[in-house]
Write a structure and sequence with these properties.
- With about 200 residues, this protein is mainly alpha-helical.
- The protein has one domain (about 5-195): Orthogonal Bundle (Fic-like fold).
- The protein has 9 helices and 4 strands.
- The protein has a two-stranded antiparallel ribbon. Strands 3-4 form a two-stranded antiparallel sheet.
- The model has no long low-confidence stretch (mean pLDDT about 90).
């Protein structure tokens, strides 16, 4: 798909992302999106969710964003570049999804997954970047839910610009510095901690 076609498909003439609410002010859309996604994420954390495979990644994105975007939960079929970073071409999605599912199987089989395992998964999901918008929020929630399945709570050290730089460089050592794992007594407690 050419750039002009993508712009017409995803953006209003003023550059605001097309949305179900027909909000054409970028700031207003950002506020509504933030509140909607935060509400949906907290609901999911309160009710728990068992992560099985990459199908769940798409389901979580759909759950977070479907009130706002028609394409929520649908993997892109076009090339994506943001901030000078080229993300995985859609022609490689099948191979990448297989790789990520293998990582998930290893993590699920581990009693207490490590920071290294979560950092590698974070890096893989970031490079995949399958959605037009909302990849970071979906990835953080997906990993938080996966950790909760192991009675772990993840605290992301919120230094967004440094995290983005580490992700763009696929620097797993730096990414590990942004993830702090707390082991808790139960899966339920990990969901409660994550929802705070």
């Amino acid at each position: 798909m050419k750039d002009e076609e993508l712009k017409k498909r995803f953006l209003y003439p003023n550059g605001t992302l097309r949305n179900k609410l027909n909000l054409q002010d970028a700031n207003e859309l950002s506020t509504v999106e933030y509140r909607t996604v935060a509400h949906n994420a907290i609901w999911l954390l309160h009710h728990g969710y068992v992560i099985k495979n990459m199908d769940d990644f798409a389901k979580i994105h759909r759950f977070l964003f479907s009130d706002i975007y028609t394409w929520a939960g649908q993997f892109r079929n076009y090339y994506l570049t943001k901030g000078g970073t080229d993300f995985m071409p859609p022609t490689a999605f099948d191979t990448a999804t297989t790789n990520i599912n293998q990582q998930l199987e290893t993590i699920k089989a581990t009693k207490k997954p490590t920071v290294e395992q979560y950092a590698k998964l974070l890096d893989s999901l970031n490079y995949l970047h399958p959605f037009r918008e909302g990849n970071g929020r979906t990835t953080r929630l997906f990993i938080q839910l996966l950790a909760a399945n192991h009675a772990q709570y993840i605290d992301y050290n919120r230094q967004d610009s440094k995290v983005i730089e580490a992700l763009n460089q696929s620097d797993l050592i730096k990414l590990q510095d942004f993830i702090k794992i707390t082991n808790v007594k139960s899966v339920q407690e990990s969901f409660i901690n994550a929802a705070k």
